[in-house]
Amino acid sequence: MSFELFSNLVGAFFTLCIFSFLYKDNPFYQMSEQLLVGISLGYSLVLTYERVFIPFFYQPIFLKQQWILIIPSIIGMFYLLRFSRKLSWLSRYPIAFSMMGVGASVALAMHNSILVQMRQAMVPLENLNLILIFIGTIAVLLYFFFSKAHTGIYGKFVDVGKWFMMVGFGASFGLTVMARISLLIGRIQFLVNDVFVMVKQAIFG
After folding, report:
1. Residues 82, 98: Cα–Cα separation, whole Å
2. How far is it, in rounded angstroms, from Cα 153 to Cα 166?
3. Residue 42: in which H helix or E strand, if any?
4. pTM score, two decimals?
5. What is the residue range of 135's domain?
6. Is 60 exposed, middle or buried (0-12, 13-18, 19+ CB in 10 A)?
7. Max Cα–Cα distance, the chain, nearest Å
8. Residue 174 lies in a domain
């Protein structure tokens, strides 16, 4: 038995163990789930060591003598004190710094999100698609304007925005479902093409 065939058989076994949850919760599914979490955690630790600890901590500080980086490194290590009852309060400092960084990045990213959407909405209404986009944008924005009651002609126009949102959310959900179906198709193709065919060739030649 070749190593490729053996690895494919192991992958097929755990794939079927995961699929067994469709029947009911069972020990095979629990074993596969816990093994997946354990392997993912181990892989993440190794990846973090090689791509974060070595290039951003060890090399700059101990090889390039950039001693100023010790300060953010110590603050980052305060995250680990979350597991200590007495010193867990120190973990709030890196959280505060990271939240400040996230807030600043979101503020700076307005050009890539809000302003871009505003610019895309300010286009000449040259065809039916652009007209529908314009109407949908205005109707959805007015739907969340709660200072005026959604009654009369205004209420009917606002309902148009609700339909636009329903169509948008439905399309997003459909895209998510299709992505999951594509993953299922990939697993089935793996079981049929990579496993069944190789087992057949190994047995019958």
Report:
1. 15
2. 20
3. helix 27-48
4. 0.63
5. 123-205
6. middle
7. 76
8. yes
Question: Which residues, 6 or more positions from 134, have their beta carbon under 8 angstroms from its beta carbon?
Answer: 121, 125
Residue 83 lies in a domain: no
Provide mean pLDDT across the span 107-130: 76
Considering the domain boundaries, does residue 141 fall inside one? yes
Domain count, the chain: 1
The alpha carbon torsion through 190, 191, 196, 202 (nearest 10 deg) reads 60
Lookup result for tokens 């600043």: 104
Strands (E), the chain: none
Tokens at residue 47, please? Answer: 């990846």
pLDDT tens-digit series, residues 33-86: 999 999 999 999 999 999 999 999 999 999 999 999 999 889 888 988 988 888
Check pLDDT > 80 for residue 150.
Answer: yes
Structure tokens given for 151: 């009654």
Any domain includes 137: yes
Q: Would you state the pLDDT for residue 194?
A: 86
